[in-house]
């Protein structure tokens, strides 16, 4: 995970990092989540679903954020007793759109997967006013269902 830039020391249930806006950041983010959940003995309820959802959020930021290529993505993972919150921040202003695709389309299902797997998800302005944060909240039952 040499491409990852760790931020300040994390609190017990939180992990943050900066990643390049590049497709190689998708597996890096998933690995960060795996390590984070392993450290908190929470892989079982959140692991597979969390990796899938985080991968889709990072992929959307890489593919759709209309920003210069050198802008970084900020990833925040927050674990509580009841849920896992995944956030991907980018400097783009365009809101994500949940698309309805037909069976022949090869892409465009990422946010649909997020909406189906998460307890809730959304998009919020970033603190400081530049860009947005797309987030998803997973509960233990969402991880177990997958």
Task: Describe the model.
The protein has 146 residues and is of the alpha+beta class. The protein has helices at residues 25-39, 43-64, 110-117, 140-145, and strands at 5-6, 14-20, 72-79, 84-90, 120-125, 132-138. It has a 6-stranded antiparallel sheet with strand order 1-2-3-4-6-5. A hairpin with a 4-residue loop joins strand 3 and strand 4 (84-90). Helix 1 (25-39) runs antiparallel to helix 2 and helix 2 (43-64) runs antiparallel to helix 3 (110-117). The longest helix has 22 residues, at 43-64. The radius of gyration is 14 Å and the shape is globular. The protein starts with a strand and ends with a helix. The model has no long low-confidence stretch (mean pLDDT 85).
SSE blueprint:
Elements: E1 5-6, E2 14-20, H1 25-39, H2 43-64, E3 72-79, E4 84-90, H3 110-117, E5 120-125, E6 132-138, H4 140-145
Helix pairs in contact: 1-2, 2-3
- The assigned structural class equals alpha+beta
* Overall mean pLDDT: 85
Helix content: 25-40%
Major beta-sheet overview: 6 strands, antiparallel
Question: Which residues sit in consecutive blocks of at least 5 with pLDDT less than 50?
Answer: none
């Amino acid at each position: 995970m040499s491409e990852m830039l760790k931020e300040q020391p994390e609190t017990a249930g939180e992990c943050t990092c900066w990643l390049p806006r590049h497709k190689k950041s998708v597996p890096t983010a998933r690995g960060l989540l795996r390590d984070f959940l392993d450290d908190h003995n929470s892989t079982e309820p959140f692991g597979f679903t969390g990796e899938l959802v985080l991968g889709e959020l990072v992929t959307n930021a890489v593919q759709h954020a209309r920003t210069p290529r050198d802008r970084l993505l900020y990833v925040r993972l927050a674990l509580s007793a009841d849920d896992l919150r995944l956030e991907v921040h980018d400097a783009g202003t365009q809101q994500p759109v949940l698309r309805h695709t037909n069976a022949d389309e090869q892409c465009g299902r990422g946010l649909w997967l997020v909406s189906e797997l998460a307890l809730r998800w959304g998009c919020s302005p970033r603190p400081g006013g530049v860009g947005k944060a797309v987030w998803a909240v997973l509960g233990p039952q969402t991880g177990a269902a997958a």
